[in-house]
Design the sequence.
């Protein structure tokens, strides 16, 4: 990856380039397990009838549509920095007849255009590792979630222990960047492996969540630790960014 590519790695511009093949890439590279991970994430949100759920890094909308399919009275606000990913999500919403229940906005997790305690739950799948200022994003999540509301963050990780950890690491380090680049037609997908390797281990990231105003209630490794689900609620006195 050259300097120009590195400067936009993980950005909305990078995901613009792979938006049309993003869903296929997810299915192939995760061997279909990403759909089960999303279902677990939706379960963790405990969505109530009529709830408004914020889906950060909504991308092509897979998480949002899982919420809407399983909770017919819920609404979703999807925010993502990639316009092309949102364009794909909008097409999918129209095809599924769900456009009236989902709102899609271009935006960043570090600065949410929402009032305090204005959403009932927040989810974020495969997006927090791409955020430049993670602590700030976590403070924003704590700020906009109502008291008692659930926060569920799903993120990829490199498994360190267990008999299949070595095989899983080989898949992430060797198979993912090569097959991703082949299917997407873009070398930028190699960024995925580097971003996973650079993401902190689960216990460390959970501590970061706690330090930014989120009471972490569960940290659950999935599929031999290839991904991890973090479940939390806003703390009574969320950490605020110093002015």
Sequence:
């Amino acid at each position: 990856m050259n300097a120009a590519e590195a400067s936009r790695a993980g950005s909305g511009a990078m995901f613009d380039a792979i938006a049309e093949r993003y869903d296929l890439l997810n299915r192939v590279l995760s061997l279909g397990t990403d759909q089960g991970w999303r279902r677990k994430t939706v379960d963790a949100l405990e969505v109530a009838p009529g709830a408004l759920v914020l889906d950060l890094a909504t991308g092509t909308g897979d998480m949002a549509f899982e919420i809407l399919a399983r909770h017919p009275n819920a609404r979703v606000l999807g925010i993502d920095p990639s316009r092309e990913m949102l364009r794909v999500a909008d097409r999918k919403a129209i095809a599924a007849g769900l456009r009236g229940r989902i709102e899609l906005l271009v935006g960043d997790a570090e600065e949410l255009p929402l009032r305090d305690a204005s959403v009932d739950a927040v989810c974020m799948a495969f997006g927090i590792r791409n955020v430049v200022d993670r602590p700030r994003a976590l403070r924003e999540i704590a700020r906009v979630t109502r008291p008692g509301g659930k926060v569920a963050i799903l993120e990829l990780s490199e498994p360190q222990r267990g008999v299949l950890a070595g095989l899983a690491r080989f898949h992430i380090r060797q198979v993912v960047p090569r097959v991703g680049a082949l299917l997407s037609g873009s070398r930028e997908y190699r960024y995925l492996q580097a971003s996973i390797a650079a993401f902190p281990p689960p216990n460390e990231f959970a501590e970061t969540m706690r330090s930014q105003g989120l009471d972490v209630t569960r940290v659950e490794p999935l599929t031999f630790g290839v991904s991890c689900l973090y479940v939390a609620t806003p703390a009574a006195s969320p950490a605020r960014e110093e002015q």
About this structure: The chain has one domain: 3-234. The domain at 3-234 is CATH 3.40.50.150 (Rossmann fold).
